[in-house]
Amino acid sequence: MVFEAYTEMCCVACGASHSPERISESIIAAWGILREKIDIVYNAVLLAEVGSVPEAVAALPHPLVVTAGRLVPWKHIDKIIDALVGVPGASLVVVGDGPLREALARHADDVLPGRVVFTGILSHEDTLAVMKSADVFVLNSSYEGLSHLLIEALMLGVPTVATRCGGNPEVITDEENGLIVPVGDTEAVAHALTRLLVMILCALVCRRMQ
């Protein structure tokens, strides 16, 4: 417990530029253990059976962007909402709950009326169903460990946008299996979402023409 608390404090102190796993590696190396003798064993992710999409989500028009997590400041859900203003016609689903829910709902009503659904807490199975229904999954955090959500999004085959913080770049390789954007850059989030949605639309048109 002490070691975990210490590594978390180190992550916060360094601006979450590295995942807790990499911070732990650095701490162990500082004890005199050669880095080449240190192996990182990541948490396993078991992809559960996919559940059902709530009716309110199913009723939203596509393209559909989904994010999930606790509604707290470092998740920057408000900036995802702001980014969607620059993506014409796109809808947003926010899965999760937290102290910012009411404030985020008011903000969504102000800038994206009728285009955002807050589901509250869903079961893991239904969360996966909502993620699978998405055209793009986005994680806009300024602090992350090794995100199971990102791993699950990739396992579900959902195009993904994530910030360059914590363990995100260890899951998402920019331009290979997703897009990485700088922390705090709402314009970059909007550009990445638009880019992926245009690519998806073009692929759909090509398939229909074949």
Would you mind describing this structure in some detail?
This protein has 210 residues and is α/β, with parallel strands linked by helices. It has two domains: 2-37; 66-209, Glycogen Phosphorylase B (Rossmann fold, 3-Layer(aba) Sandwich). 44% of the residues lie in helices and 12% in strands. It has helices spanning 2-13, 20-30, 55-58, 77-85, 101-111, 124-133, 148-155, 168-171, 186-209; strands at 64-68, 91-95, 116-120, 136-139, 160-163, 179-181. A six-stranded parallel β-sheet has the order 3-2-1-4-5-6, sandwiched between helices. α4 links the parallel β1 and β2. α4 packs across α9. The chain is globular. Residues 1-16 have low confidence and may be disordered.
Briefly, what is this?
With 210 residues, the chain is α/β, with parallel strands linked by helices.
How many domain units? Answer: 2
Q: Identify the overall geometry.
A: globular
Report, as a whole number of angstroms, the end-to-end distance: 57 Å
| CATH fold-level topology of the largest domain | Rossmann fold
Global Rg? 18 Å
Q: Encode the helix/strand succession as letters.
A: HHHEHEHEHEHEHEH
Q: Beta fraction of the residues?
A: 5-15%
CATH class of the largest domain reads Alpha Beta
The tally of beta strands, per DSSP, is 6
CATH architecture of the largest domain: 3-Layer(aba) Sandwich
Strand order of the largest sheet: 3-2-1-4-5-6
| Biggest sheet descriptor | 6 strands, parallel
Unreliable stretches (pLDDT < 50, length at least 5) are: 1-16
Structural class assignment: alpha/beta
Instruction: Provide the residue-averaged pLDDT.
Output: 87
Helix content: 40-55%
